[in-house]
Amino acid sequence: MALRSIKNLAPLLDRVLVQRIKAESKTAGGLFLPESSVKELNEAKVLAIGPGALDKEGKRIGMGVGVGDKVLIPQACPHI
Question: Residues near 51 by Cβ (< 8 Å), separated by ≥ 6?
Fold first, then answer.
């Protein structure tokens, strides 16, 4: 239910709604990795995009990403 309600959100202007991709716990060779060795990825899937920002003349600047694209997101700062 939560994912359905998130997909109903519409980002404004040049905002992007993303969902973090879970790290694989299985290697390409079929070995399962313990949870302690699986790091959090800084990769996400774009769920929704806004229409884009406006320039000084009022024209819409298009977005560089689309729904379904994979993007890199910054790691959270440990000091905040």
Answer: 13, 60, 63
Residue 5 binned pLDDT confidence (cut-offs 50, 70, 90): low
Sheet holding 43-49, edge to edge: 16-20, 43-49, 70-72
Which tokens is 20 given? 């973090």
Question: What is the total residue count of the chain?
Answer: 80
Are the C-beta atoms of 7 and 18 separated by less than 8 Å? no
| Predicted confidence (pLDDT) per residue in 27-75, tens digit | 777 777 776 666 666 788 998 888 888 889 989 888 888 889 998 888 7
Non-local CB neighbours of 4 within 8 Å, separated by 6+ positions: none
Q: Which helix (H) or strand (E) holds 48?
A: strand 43-49
Question: What pTM, to 2 d.p., does this model score?
Answer: 0.65
